[in-house]
Design brief:
With 92 residues, the protein is mainly β. It has no helices and seven strands. The relative contact order is 0.32.
Length: 92
């Protein structure tokens, strides 16, 4: 069993919405947020439990200022272990 996080983030660049497709082996709590390219602004986008199997999150980013951000995807594992995916995105 692979510990690799199966996740797809699209479209990049994006305008009003960003979608995250993730396959979950377990029901776990997930947090998605953006950090601006200066590392100063933390913008929460999603925090909840995702079901086992395929999940597609469509997140509204229309109110966020244009620019470059880092998208962080944090996924709880059993106990205190976390999986994280970071991707640079551009809002146009």
């Amino acid at each position: 069993m692979s510990n690799k996080l199966e996740i797809d983030i699209y479209p990049i660049p994006c305008t009003d919405f960003i979608s995250i497709k993730v396959f979950k082996k377990l029901v776990t709590k997930v947090k998605v947020y953006l950090i601006d390219n200066k590392g100063e602004v933390d913008i929460p986008l999603f925090e909840d439990y995702l079901k086992k199997g395929e999940n597609i999150l469509k997140l509204d980013i229309s109110m966020i200022k244009k620019g470059k951000y880092f998208l962080f995807y944090l996924d709880e594992e059993v106990g205190i272990k976390m999986k994280m995916k970071m991707k640079e995105i551009e809002l146009i």
